[in-house]
Design goal:
Layout (H helix, E strand, L loop, with lengths): L2 E4 L2 E8 L3 E6 L10 H7 L3 E6 L16 H15 L4 E6 L1 H12 L4 E7 L11 H7 L2 H14 L7 H14 L15 E6 L6 H10 L4 E5 L6 H4 L1 H13 L8
Parallel strand pairs: 3-4, 3-5, 5-6, 6-7, 7-8
Antiparallel strand pairs: 1-2, 2-4
Helix pairs in contact: 1-9, 2-3
Length: about 250
């Protein structure tokens, strides 16, 4: 099994394709399966690195609460372990928040950023009744099935992971729009028009990042990477084609 030993975390990861390095970061309560179709599309042109964070997919959980700062640290440790000093970053949901923080606080590591369905703070979510429509019952069932099948902690640990994620989403992130003015990486902000993050909030993220592009995918909910990977992949590929090539990759 492809694991890499990181400080405090034996992390599952997959590397596919060839070309410039691209880091694909999954969302909360997701595994690499959720971004699998997007991965296959991007790996036609890039060397895609997909790590699974603690408590997700095939990576064992850790006892401490979840925090975005810890996700950033885990991602940096992963890049160091695989010898990638700089990469394109495509993040979904929690992975997109991690990508924004990486681009803001560690600009030398991020060649470009695609942030899909991110939020800057908990106020960015739509009301609960709308959020429930953003992820279908079938999608919830699929995520639960994948967790039970893949997790080394066993299917029964899912409630613990969900509880820690819900606690995280009530508290974090706390990113001020002004702080994103320092982001220098070319950035694309994406979301579905039926996302659990409001369109106004998504637009505010794009407005806060200098020169960022904005794409709202019609008819798509929060799991747009799974609902319409071909469309998302085409938009991301077009964006990345406009980004300067990595020197000395």
């Amino acid at each position: 099994m492809p694991y890499v030993e990181l400080p405090g975390s034996r992390t599952y990861h997959e590397i596919t394709g060839a070309g410039e390095p691209l880091l694909l970061l999954h969302g909360g309560f997701c595994s690499l399966e959720a971004t699998g179709d997007l991965n296959r599309l991007l790996s036609a042109r890039y060397r895609v690195h997909g790590p699974e964070r603690p408590g997700h997919g095939r990576t064992p959980d850790q006892p401490q609460p979840y925090a975005y700062a810890a996700m950033v640290d885990h991602t940096l440790a992963y890049l160091d372990a695989i010898g990638v000093p700089r990469a394109h970053v495509v993040g979904f949901s929690d992975g997109a928040i991690t990508g924004l923080l990486l681009a803001r606080d560690h600009p030398r590591r991020v060649a470009s950023l695609v942030a899909i369905s991110a939020n800057l703070d908990p106020s960015g979510f739509v009301p609960d009744e709308q959020a429930a429509l953003s992820v279908s019952a079938r999608q919830h069932e699929q995520l639960g099935e994948e967790y039970g099948r893949l997790s080394p902690d066993g299917a029964g640990h899912a409630d613990t992971v969900v509880g820690k994620l819900l606690d995280l989403w009530k508290r974090e992130p706390q990113i001020t729009p002004d702080s994103l003015a320092s982001v220098t990486a070319p950035t694309l902000v994406m979301a579905g028009d039926r996302d659990m993050v409001t369109l106004e909030h998504t637009a505010s993220i794009a407005a806060a990042v200098p020169g960022a592009q904005l794409c709202v995918v019609p008819g798509a909910g929060h799991l747009l990477v799974r609902e319409c990977p071909e469309l998302v992949g085409a938009v991301v590929t077009r964006f990345l084609a406009s980004v300067p090539a990595l020197a000395g990759r």
